[in-house]
Amino acid sequence: MMQFTDYLFYFFSSILVLSSLRVITANNPVYSALSLVLAFFSAAGIWLLLHAEFLAIALVLVYVGAVMVLFLFVVMMLDINTETLKKGFWNYLPIALIISGLFIFEIYLVVTDKFFYEAKVLSEDATSNTELLGSVLYTDYLLPFQIAAVILLVAIVSAIALTMYGKKSHKGIDPKDQIRVDKKDRIRIVKMSSGKTK
C-alpha cells in the first residue's frame, strides 16, 4: 500500500518532468526560465522527501535565488532571436535520446537494491545531515574543498579583469593630476549680463 510520501514523490516528479520539458519546448525564453525555476523547486521537494534538507535549501537559495534570477533578468534585458535558438533542435533528438537513456540506466543502477546501500553514520553526535556533510567536508575533503575555493576565486578575478580590460570609462581620479592643480584653475569667475534691460 502506498504511503503519503509516495504520492508526494510522484507529484513532485511529475511536475519536475513536465517543467523540464517546458524548458526546452517553450517559444519564449522567459517562460523557459520560469519553468526551470519550477523544476528547481520540484527537485528541492524531492530532496526534502529524501531527508536531505541541506541540499534542498541549497538548491533553492543558490539556483533559484541567485542563478535563475540573474539568468531571468539577462533574458528579459536581451533581445534574443528565438528562431535562431530553436533552429536545428529536432536534428539533435537521436543524440538526446541516447544520452537520456544512459542517464536513466545510471539512475537505475543507483536506485536498485543491488547497488543501493544504507549510508553509514559518520558521527554519533551528529543530529542532521547538514552536520554530517560539514564534518566530512571539513575533515576528509578539506584540501579539495580549499582547492575548489581557490579555483573559483581565480575565475572571479579573471572574469572581472577580462571585463574591465582596456576600458577607460572608470571614474577614478589620478592623484598626480590632483597634486598639479593650481589654485587659479579651480575657480573661475565669469561675468555675465543678467539679460534685463533698464
Write a structural description.
- With 198 residues, the protein is mostly helical.
- 67% of the residues lie in helices and 0% in strands.
- It has nine helices and no strands.
- The termini are far apart.
Brief write-up:
The chain has helices at residues 4-25, 29-49, 53-77, 82-86, 93-111, 129-137, 142-164, 175-179, 183-186.
- In terms of DSSP E residues, the strand content is under 5%
- Uncertain spans: none
Number of H- or I-type helical stretches: 9
Measured between the Cα atoms of the first and last residue, the distance is 102 Å
The assigned structural class equals: mainly alpha
* DSSP E strands, number: 0
Largest sheet: none
Give helix and strand order, one letter per element, not per position: HHHHHHHHH
Specify Rg, calculated over alpha carbons: 28 Å
Shape: elongated
Overall pLDDT confidence: 77
In helices, the fraction of residues equals: 55-70%
Notable features of this structure?
198 residues, 0% strand, mainly alpha, 67% helix
What's the arrangement of secondary structure elements?
Elements: H1 4-25, H2 29-49, H3 53-77, H4 82-86, H5 93-111, H6 129-137, H7 142-164, H8 175-179, H9 183-186
Helix pairs in contact: 1-2, 2-3
